[in-house]
Amino acid sequence: MTEPAISFQGVTRRYPQKGAAGDVMALQDIWLDVPQGAVTGIIGRSGAGKSTLLRMVNGLERPSSGKLIVNGRDVGGASDGGLRAIRREVGMIFQHFNLLASRTVAGNIALPLEIAGEDRAKIAPRTAELIERVGLTAQANRYPAELSGGQKQRVGIARALASGPRVLLSDEATSALDPDTTRQVLDLLQGINRELGLTILLITHEMAVVRDICSHVAVIEAGRIVEAGETYSVFSRPRHPTTRSFLQGVTGVTMPQFIAGQLRPAAGDAGAQAVLQVTFTGRHATDPMLARLTAERGVSVNILAGAIEEIGARPFGSLIVGLPADRLAESQGFLEQHGLMTEVLGYVG
Ligand SMILES: Nc1ncnc2c1ncn2[C@@H]1O[C@H](COP(=O)(O)OP(=O)(O)OP(=O)(O)O)[C@@H](O)[C@H]1O
Question: What positions does the domain ABC transporter occupy (predicted)?
Fold first, then answer.
């Protein structure tokens, strides 16, 4: 096993508060390994602790306790020189781009190289290469005010790559962009991850971003990681209610209103219908299991809602079905035996 690019080992971050309110625990006992060369997403609501977590990775904050290793270096124990070394290997892009208005595209991208005291003769070709990498050759001499949001973020990405980092951090980089531009920027990040082998750690409050480019995900709430793993596994078997609520509307299906309004927690009457969510993953996504349930067991199944999509290039489907409550246990057994996942959502009728 290769070492993780970033390893949080029981990290806590406390902000002392004046007065009686007690300290703010921004992060509590975080254990997380960010694999090298992967795209990992941290998702959480406002105030969950995402920015604090990211700021630690580039050495802007230190853990109050626990240990944080970035590219083999201990952030907590680093000297000022050590922190500078950590920052050199970590690039960062921002929601609001943070470009200098008085500098052109080329000037913004060259800035980190100038600050690092790079040889003048090397700066121009390196800058041109980065500009080409992000597809802005025609805009090289424009100023930020003359660029679209997507173009500004491309400048941000090129600037973050200028010093050849091993890790790229993204702080809500697509939150200010429209869906089409978001897609293009995510494609660019994915290309950079694949072609340069760069580790990407991004924070977001949008599960669609995680679905589209993250191979790994951690869900954070009130300073704690409540669920983490490979995106595919977390999406197919979300365990925590927060994860489930982030997933609503992003994968699979939403419950049709006419059913949601009638749903009861218990079967009640004879003749009631059980409402079951059936999740298909991997090769089972295309297997006609529901048809087989009807053909082989004589259980009639009503499909109420459904969606099939791709996550991490693997098929992922989710259906909401109704079937006779008195055949529920048998049907669940049949479907699970054939590799599908089921969850009872309630009863109607
Ligand atoms: N410098 C600070 N001093 C005191 N409290 C802080 C400080 N920075 C963050 N916090 C608190 O720590 C908690 C986590 O904040 P953080 O900014 O990391 O959350 P977030 O998930 O990034 O939220 P958002 O998406 O709104 O940026 C919040 O309760 C916040 O008020």
Answer: 6-247
